[in-house]
Amino acid sequence: MSDGGEGLPVSGDPTLAFAPEQFLAQLESHERLLIELKQKLYEGSWERMLGDLRARLDGQPYIYKLSQTIARDIAGIERLRAYERTRGVDLAGLLKQRAG
């Protein structure tokens, strides 16, 4: 099952059941960066961020060059977005609280 993206499976991801602190603790650095960029560049919207990545893949104008590995970033966004939806949390807010 997909979370509305590029057909990437996210429902079978066991980390979706993790408590927020446990989920944040296991994030990779590029996933934390995606969360920060979502807030800073895309007004908190995963959809706008995914649209930007897909525009880049299609050779259209885009806002920010996230990385050379667009497929990894799309998969990461799908996973992070699925976690937020499943758990009803805002990962950016949780990261900010954790840092403060």
Describe what you observe in this structure:
With 100 residues, the protein is mainly alpha-helical. It has one domain (28-99). It has five helices and no strands. α2 (29-41) crosses α4 and α3 (46-57) runs antiparallel to α4. The longest helix has 18 residues, at 70-87. The protein is globular.
Ends apart, CA distance between termini: 36 Å
Main pleated-sheet profile: none
Large-scale geometry: globular
- Structural class, judged by helices and strands? mainly alpha
**What is the radius of gyration?**
13 Å
> In terms of per-residue confidence, which ranges show pLDDT below 50 for 5 or more consecutive residues?
1-9
Q: Name the helicity range.
A: 55-70%
Helical segment count: 5
Average pLDDT, to the nearest integer? 83
Number of domains: 1
In short:
The chain is mainly α and 100 residues long. It contains five helices and no strands. The longest helix is centred in the last third of the chain and has 18 residues.
Protein traits:
100 residues; mainly alpha; 5 helices; disordered N terminus
How are the secondary structure elements laid out?
Blueprint: H1 20-25, H2 29-41, H3 46-57, H4 70-87, H5 91-99
